[in-house]
Every structure is written in C-alpha cells, then in structure tokens.
Amino acid sequence: MRFIVVDGLDGSGKDTHARFVAERYLSRGETVIIRNHPSDSFFGKKAKQSLLGRGKLNHLKASIFYFLDVMNSLIKFYKKADNVIFVRYIGGVFYLPSPLAKFFYKFFSAILPTSNYMFFLDAEPEVLAKRVGIREEKEMFENLEDLKKVRDKALRILKGWHVVRTDREIEETRAEIESILNELDSKN
C-alpha cells in the first residue's frame, strides 16, 4: 500500500493535486481512497465549524476535532486500498502557536504513519490569499497575515517532505509531482 499525503496551506491546490495523483493510480487499475480533512465525519464537521469561528476557544476546538478526524480516518481507511491519499494530515499542526507546532509535529511524526510519499504544496502567501479570497466562507486563518506566519512556520519545521511549488503553471507542478512519483514507485 502507498500512503500518500498531500498537505499545504489553504489555497495551495491540495484537492486538485490529490485528484491528479489518484487518477494516476486509478488509470493503472489500482484502488484509491482519498480522505480529505476536515472530512464529512462527526469530528470533521465539528472541526470545520470551529474553523469558521474566531478566537482562541475555536482555535483549540478546531485543533482537537481535526486531530480526532484524522485519527478516525486512519482507523477506518489505512491499508484499505492500494493507495490511500490523505489531504491534510499532520500539517494541521502548523496552525498552532510556534512552540506547540514544533512539539506536536515531532510527536505526531513519531507515532503516526508516515511515508516517502508526503507532499507539501507551497505557494507565496499573496497567491494563496488571492485563491482563498474567492471563497464564500472563510476559515480563521485565510488571511494574508496568517498565511505568511503559518507558511514560514511550516517551511522551518518540515523534514523529509517533497515541497512542491504550486504558484506556477499547473502543468509544471504536475510534471514535478509525476517525476517524484515515478522515482518513488521505481524504488518500491
């Protein structure tokens, strides 16, 4: 089984590129499950509801429900297909204050499944802000100031991920992802 993670900040193209990866393996006759977080589970709905709120209490609730949502997906879907793709995984910790983000990133990286197929989609905060600006419902971190802070934190903390720029032509991004997947698949 390939455990593939497509993570990144809001507006980075996670859903778009996760579908691209899924189509790659589906076209080979392999089975694929995509789990997008927050998901449609009870915990995912509560996380999403909290993300649409403001303040420290909603931030805390969003973090807790997000974690429970990811754990629920791991229990239900891990190793249930040839390819399991998680859209948003441990990258959710980057939205926590810096000391907590670093601690929880190390903690979750040590206890949760990881793989060589972990992608962090990156773009300049101005591009991300423009992309999320077209959404009707804005989450608490979907503003330029927070996108800058969270991106800087994520890039400092990330270790062992494939960081792929998405603020360029989509064909270039897909070609880079395809190249990484080809290399990884040839090793496995």
Which helices and strands, and how do they pair?
Elements: E1 2-8, H1 14-26, E2 32-36, H2 42-51, H3 55-77, E3 83-87, H4 98-111, E4 118-122, H5 125-132, H6 144-157, E5 162-165, H7 170-187
Parallel strand pairs: 1-3, 1-4, 2-3, 4-5
**N-to-C order of helices and strands:** EHEHHEHEHHEH
The proportion of residues forming helix, as a percent range, comes to 40-55%
Straight-line distance between termini: 10 Å
SSE class = alpha/beta
Tell me which CATH architecture applies here: 3-Layer(aba) Sandwich
Low-confidence stretches: none
Total strand segments? 5
Range of strand content: 5-15%
- Count every helix, treating DSSP H or I runs of 4 or more residues as helices: 7
- Approximate shape: globular
Lateral arrangement of strands in the main beta sheet: 2-3-1-4-5
Mean pLDDT: 90
CATH class: Alpha Beta
Report on the architecture of this protein.
By secondary structure, the protein is α/β, with parallel strands linked by helices. The chain has a single domain (2-187), classed as P-loop containing nucleotide triphosphate hydrolases (Rossmann fold), CATH 3.40.50. Helices cover 53% and strands 14% of the residues. It has 7 helices and 5 strands, in the order βαβααβαβααβα. The chain has a 5-stranded parallel sheet, covered by helices on one side. It is globular and about 45 Å long. The relative contact order is 0.20. The mean pLDDT is 90.
